[in-house]
Design the sequence.
């Protein structure tokens, strides 16, 4: 953490202002409402909210990373939903662009005595749409009791309410305990109900060079495989698979135009590989599977999309391509992360065979392999984004 920033936060941490009570939907909120047009401002000055606790709101990625970079670098997998996007925003700012509108980060520090990052909330927008609210932590998830997280979540909820419009908060994606507590508090504050059935419930897992399992690709007589980085001529076929992936990811579906846009971005940014198959006697090959990795930082890559054409399933295509992509990523990264849905045991087995941690049948807990949940809010009230 930069010396000047640390000193500023440290001095504030030694001040005292008592914690204000979380308002309910029946009580007026004690701060003026700020809509998205107000987010073109420099970072809001830190405000001490209790002894040894501090919140700071950022709208500049340069300022955010100046204050929290060591915490993110030490927890890249856990912050895979926040850190890579912040790096992109910082690069844009450092090239001379103003901070991008619609980007807000709220950081919860404790001071004991030096400031330490405990939780980071992000409310950000990408080329493909508005992200959910992401919250993650530097703490092990087994320490996140309701008693421990209640104060941090209460303060983050209030601060988020203060700086973004209520309809912008269409879902929360975070480790289970955080997501559930945030959703309850947000509903209490705003009156916007949350949906009982999660949009997504998954396990965050990772593979390293040490856990990666090398295996010779199985060849089938009469079938030719081609596994490679996608090129522009693949875009139309990739778009069809992006459309298929989204159709199984309600409510984040894509129309044909949206799928084509996503496929074009993936290819242009060199973030998707394809597994092509050509059967003997066929004139041309077809894309059987795709693997995309769109959230990447210095030492971590995150696989964000694995999808196999239904016509080519149960042929080992996904495992073959995931293994090949991991091998490629390990040329420049130390770790590859991904989420696998609790309801997709077949995918868990594939990733386990490749070398992803915490997915075996033994049920042994692995540090850093955690359950995450995405909880949506009343769709009659919110403005749905896409990710």
Sequence:
């Amino acid at each position: 953490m930069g010396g000047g920033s640390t000193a500023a936060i440290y001095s504030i941490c030694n001040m005292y202002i008592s914690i204000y009570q979380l308002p309910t939907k029946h009580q007026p909120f004690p701060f003026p409402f700020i809509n998205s047009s107000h987010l073109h401002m420099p970072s809001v000055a830190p405000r001490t909210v209790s002894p040894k606790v501090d919140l700071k709101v950022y709208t500049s990625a340069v300022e955010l990373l100046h204050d929290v970079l060591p915490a993110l670098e030490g927890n890249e997998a856990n912050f895979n939903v926040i850190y890579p996007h912040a790096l992109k925003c910082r690069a844009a700012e450092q090239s001379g662009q103003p901070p991008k509108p619609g980007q807000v980060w709220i950081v919860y520090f404790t001071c004991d005595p030096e400031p330490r990052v405990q939780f980071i909330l992000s409310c950000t927008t990408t080329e493909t749409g508005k992200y959910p609210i992401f919250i993650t932590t530097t703490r092990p998830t087994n320490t996140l009791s309701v008693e421990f997280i209640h104060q941090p979540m209460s303060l983050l909820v209030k601060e988020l309410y203060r700086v973004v419009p209520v309809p912008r908060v269409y879902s929360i994606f975070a480790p289970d305990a955080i997501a559930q507590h945030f959703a309850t508090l947000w509903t209490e504050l705003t009156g916007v109900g949350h949906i009982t059935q999660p949009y997504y419930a998954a396990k965050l897992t990772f593979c390293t060079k040490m856990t990666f399992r090398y295996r010779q690709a199985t060849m089938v007589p009469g079938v030719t495989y081609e596994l490679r980085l996608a090129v522009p001529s693949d875009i139309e076929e990739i778009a069809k698979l992006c459309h298929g992936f989204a159709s199984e990811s309600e409510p984040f579906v894509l129309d044909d135009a949206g799928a084509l846009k996503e496929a074009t971005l993936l290819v242009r940014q060199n973030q998707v590989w394809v597994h092509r198959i050509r059967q003997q006697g066929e004139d041309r090959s077809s894309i059987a599977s795709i693997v995309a990795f769109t959230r990447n930082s210095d030492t971590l890559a995150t696989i964000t999309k694995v999808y196999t054409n239904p016509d080519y399933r149960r042929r080992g295509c996904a495992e073959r391509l995931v293994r090949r992509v991991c091998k490629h990523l390990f040329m420049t990264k130390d770790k590859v992360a991904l989420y696998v849905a609790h309801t997709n045991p077949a995918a868990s087995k594939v990733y386990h065979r490749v070398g992803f941690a915490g997915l075996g049948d033994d049920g042994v807990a692995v540090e850093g392999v955690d359950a995450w949940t995405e909880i949506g809010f009343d769709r009659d009230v919110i403005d749905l984004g896409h990710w």
Q: What stands out?
A: Confidence is low (pLDDT under 50) at residues 1-12, 14-42.
